Amino acid sequence: MAERLTQAREYAGLPKNGLARLADLSSASVGAYERGVQAPTDEVIVRLAKTLNVDPELLTTPMDGGPVDRVFWRRMARDTVQSQRRTTAYIQWACEAIYRVEDFVELPPLNLPDFKFTDWTRISDFQIEEAAMLAREHWGLGTGPIADVTRVIENAGIPVLEFEVENRGQAGFTHPSDLLGRPVIGFNSFEQTNARQRFSLAHELGHLLLHETVRDVDLSTSQRYRQIENQAHRFAAAFLFPHDAYVRSVRYHSLEEMASLKRTWGVAVLTQIKRSEQLGCVSSEKAQALFVQAGRRRFRRPFGEPWDRDTPLEAPRLLARSIDLLSNDAPLSYNELIETMPFPRSVLQEAFGRSFAPISDNVVQLKPRVV
């Protein structure tokens, strides 16, 4: 009860005193419930659930496995602790839901290349570029544009979760789930563009392949966290637009040329400017001049780059297909699965892209003929 109440409160974005006020309880009582030192009555559980817009069963259902611990956040300066806590609750519930789905449907096995990086702090830019190419080779992607990054990740056995938090600073996350025995990757669809989504997904993939040896203390140290993020940035750029292909494709290093290449490669203009500087194609001064030009054209604003509004987001399919398989081929198992799901329907809709509505038995009731 204690952890479930905290999850539901943080998902709702409420402080303890805010929940107490809305549920007509004392802050001390709410704090005691969340610490597990006092058990609420059945009537209070119903009141709390109604206030938090969750099923009362959720608050009393034990968790599968432990709480979410390690998360790599694809965040920026505008990210907040509140939005991270809300998303952590979402990750917890989504992983538990996937765990229950796996009782009925077998997901693809995890298929990741193993680079055996024993010390992430010593990984060089050259090794990151090489790792990106080896990853492409491992999955048979060649050296050209990747049509669908989401599909590549899901084919490797990694569920991709869509979520929406009204905070552009939180772009995505990676959670290596002990419960599932596989990682999950998420992206924030709020004011999201196709190019930014693809970069975020490739960035999260970089964490999985480069940062197995990262410790929790590394993520909480600003200098080391910045290095971890920069390595994932470099991997994402190299994975989406490999070194040789980039050098061969970009000739003039102008905004117009980069906008044209964006349609083919699905890589943002701002990312290409940074890529040009990384690879030594332009000087730092030239890159800065291009960033200034891009700023004047409002490329940094939401949907400010060319083609941002014309290209739809990539859609996760793996989890949706698992639910479709059950609902179409095994409706009894599908209904049985739904009965094990106390999680908010809005969370399931986001994670699986399906409504989780029960299927009727579809049996026509016969009536005796009146003679």
The radius of gyration is: 23 Å
Low-confidence stretches are: none
The count of domains is 2
Per the CATH scheme, the topology name of the largest domain is Arc Repressor Mutant, subunit A
The largest pleated sheet is described as: 4 strands, mixed
Q: What CATH architecture label of the largest domain applies?
A: Orthogonal Bundle
Number of helices: 18
Question: How would you portray this structure in words?
Answer:
This protein has 2 domains: 2-60, Orthogonal Bundle (434 Repressor (Amino-terminal Domain)), CATH 1.10.260.40; 72-296, Arc Repressor Mutant, subunit A (Orthogonal Bundle). The chain is 53% helix and 6% strand. It contains 18 helices and 4 strands. A 4-stranded mixed sheet has the order 1-3-4-2, sandwiched between helices. A hairpin with a 4-residue loop joins strand 3 and strand 4.
Short summary of the structure?
The chain has 371 residues and is of the alpha+beta class. The chain has helices spanning 2-12, 16-22, 27-35, 42-52, 56-60, 81-101, 125-138, 149-155, 194-210, 216-219, 222-240, 243-249, 255-265, 269-278, 284-296, 318-329, 331-339, 345-352; strands at residues 72-75, 160-163, 170-177, 182-188.
